[in-house]
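Severity: low
Component: inverse-folding endpoint
Summary: output formatting inconsistent between runs
Steps to reproduce: submit the following structure tokens with default settings.
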């Protein structure tokens, strides 16, 4: 299958590329700064790299055309923190992505989210509540953008086969073990590795077990 990967130059995105290739998919990368990609990725014959901004309709349309799915690791940069731009730029990008997916008849979207995007299946968790409130207080614009991403995908993408993969605190460890559930279900925790996220995204694209759902994935 041919997949478009967004957010490919970030730490999670790099692992997502690796997992997609390992699963024998061909990959299209759309990135603002593709020069950040490794030389190995840039010269891999299974990878097509297109440069562009998330608000460039023509370039983004060309990236989406002909793919079977969009796998996205887009999210606010941890390093930007409270300096994340105002106006929910990522949610606005998703609005355009969804519009273009519909135009090119691409139905499958698997996107990064966080517990700031709530779900009716969530239950109260003190630890998670503290984390989400901390983000909302210390990185308000990033929090608002993430919440808006969830609203955009659920409303504007209601005719797509979307999955929002919610991750709590991300770790750079290599452990790919995960549990899948919802906040406060007694099984999920507050940590997950980027490697586990990348593996789950590719597996969910292939298996379609959480379509139109927003599961929380964490370490066991």
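Observed output (run 2 of 3):
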């Amino acid at each position: 299958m041919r997949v478009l990967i967004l957010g490919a130059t970030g730490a999670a995105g790099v692992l997502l590329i690796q997992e997609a290739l390992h699963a024998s998919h061909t990959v299209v990368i759309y990135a603002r700064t593709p020069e950040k990609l490794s030389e190995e990725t840039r010269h891999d014959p299974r990878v097509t790299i297109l440069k562009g901004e998330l608000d460039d309709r023509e370039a983004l349309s060309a990236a989406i055309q002909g793919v079977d799915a969009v796998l996205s690791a887009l999210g606010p940069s941890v390093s930007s923190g409270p300096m994340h731009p105002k106006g929910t730029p990522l949610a606005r990008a998703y609005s355009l992505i969804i519009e273009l997916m519909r135009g090119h008849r691409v139905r499958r979207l698997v996107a990064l989210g966080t517990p700031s995007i709530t779900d009716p299946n969530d239950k109260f968790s003190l630890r998670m509540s503290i984390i989400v409130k901390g983000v909302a207080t210390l990185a308000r614009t990033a929090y608002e953008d993430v919440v808006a991403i969830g609203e955009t995908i659920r409303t504007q993408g209601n005719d797509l086969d979307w999955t929002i993969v919610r991750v709590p605190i991300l770790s750079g460890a290599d452990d790919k073990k995960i549990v899948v559930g919802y906040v406060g279900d007694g099984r999920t925790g507050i940590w997950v590795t980027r490697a586990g996220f990348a593996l789950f995204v590719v597996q969910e694209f292939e298996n379609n077990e959480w379509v139109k759902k927003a599961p929380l994935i964490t370490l066991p």
